[in-house]
């Protein structure tokens, strides 16, 4: 049955999956990053007289750029909690609270939620206004809309601002953008992907692992790649679960262990990864567990894995009509497990 094993296909001939990334020319990226100055807030907070003594200096008297760096990526609960510390903190964080309201409305307009009609223009207006008040979360959302429109320079402006504020999602987007330069700027890509990965962004961890895995045959790189595959897999990133299984199965960067490989393959399959469903179905077929094998192969076939249909038909001819109907019922009622 080994001949039926399938691996993701990418241009580099690696068997490991990659993220679908938009094309970005070197001129576009260099124009975006040359001579850029990061402004955190176009509307400064209310001016206050400087404290007369050192004892009066507190959180609220910090420069607004510093406050933004501290709180730009706060979510609603953290921002509210910080605002309740004292009156001076509440006043200092007022622009970010205003930004949070605008961010909320922007998401409603973007997705058409809570009785609001979908309107991308209004969503972008809310996101840009929230970004002007210092919200890194809004900067990322504004960047996403510009990117979807093909306005890459504007998108990168917002990603860059949010990345410098420490937002892992923006850092991840920047890293992936650098991979699209012709030729790719791997050094800058790795720099931002490392930052995002250390910040816990599982998509960046997975992409970083792919970059390291493809970078020649260095053992140290492969071990580092596997470390990030596993972090992303443990964080719920399904593609990383599949690649972690491959590493255990092939002994790449890890001691070969088929039991652990099958564990990760099943995790990916149960979360909807079609190639993992195919591979796991083949393993179950080899074990003689025909009904479960048929379920996973049916799911893989429905997801477009052509090779799964052939093996599925072989199993169907070996099962009774009752067993076939039971397997189809299980496949019809199947729901993917949540990633986390």
UniProtKB/TrEMBL annotation:
Database matches in Pfam families: F-box-like (PF12937), Sel1 (PF08238)
Domain F-box intervals: 56-108
InterPro entries: F-box-like_dom_sf, F-box_dom, F-box_motif, Sel1-like, TPR-like_helical_dom_sf
Protein name, as recorded: F-box domain-containing protein
Source species: Pisum sativum (Garden pea)
């Amino acid at each position: 049955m080994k001949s039926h094993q399938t691996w993701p296909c990418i241009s580099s001939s690696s068997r490991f999956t990659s993220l679908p990334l938009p094309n970005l020319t070197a001129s576009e990226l260099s124009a975006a990053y040359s001579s850029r100055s990061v402004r955190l807030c176009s509307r400064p907070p209310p001016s206050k007289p400087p404290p007369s003594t050192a004892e009066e200096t507190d959180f609220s008297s910090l420069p607004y750029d510093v406050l933004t760096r501290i709180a730009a990526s706060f979510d609603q609960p953290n921002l509210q909690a910080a605002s309740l510390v004292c009156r001076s903190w509440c006043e200092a964080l007022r622009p970010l609270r205003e930004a949070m309201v605008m961010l909320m409305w922007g998401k409603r307009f973007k997705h058409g939620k809570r009785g609001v009609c979908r309107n991308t223009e209004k969503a972008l207006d809310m996101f840009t206004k929230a970004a002007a008040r210092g919200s890194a979360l809004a900067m990322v959302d504004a960047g996403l809309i510009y990117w979807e429109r093909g306005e890459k320079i504007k998108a990168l402006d917002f990603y860059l601002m949010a990345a410098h504020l420490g937002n892992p999602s923006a850092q991840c987007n920047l890293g992936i953008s650098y991979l699209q330069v012709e030729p790719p700027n791997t050094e800058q890509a790795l720099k931002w992907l490392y930052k995002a990965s250390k910040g816990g962004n599982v998509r960046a961890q997975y992409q970083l692992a792919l970059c390291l895995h493809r970078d020649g045959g260095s053992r140290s790189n492969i071990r580092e790649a596997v470390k990030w595959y596993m972090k992303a897999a443990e964080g719920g990133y399904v593609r990383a679960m599949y690649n972690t299984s491959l590493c255990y199965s092939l002994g790449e960067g890890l001691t070969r262990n088929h039991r652990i490989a099958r564990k990760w393959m099943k995790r990916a399959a149960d979360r909807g990864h079609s190639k993992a469903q195919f591979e796991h179905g083949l393993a179950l077929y080899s074990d003689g567990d025909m009904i479960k094998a048929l379920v996973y192969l049916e799911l893989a076939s429905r997801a477009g894995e052509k090779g799964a249909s052939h093996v599925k038909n072989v199993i169907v001819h070996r099962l009774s009509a009752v067993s076939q109907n039971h397997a189809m019922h299980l496949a019809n009622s199947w729901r993917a497990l949540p990633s986390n």
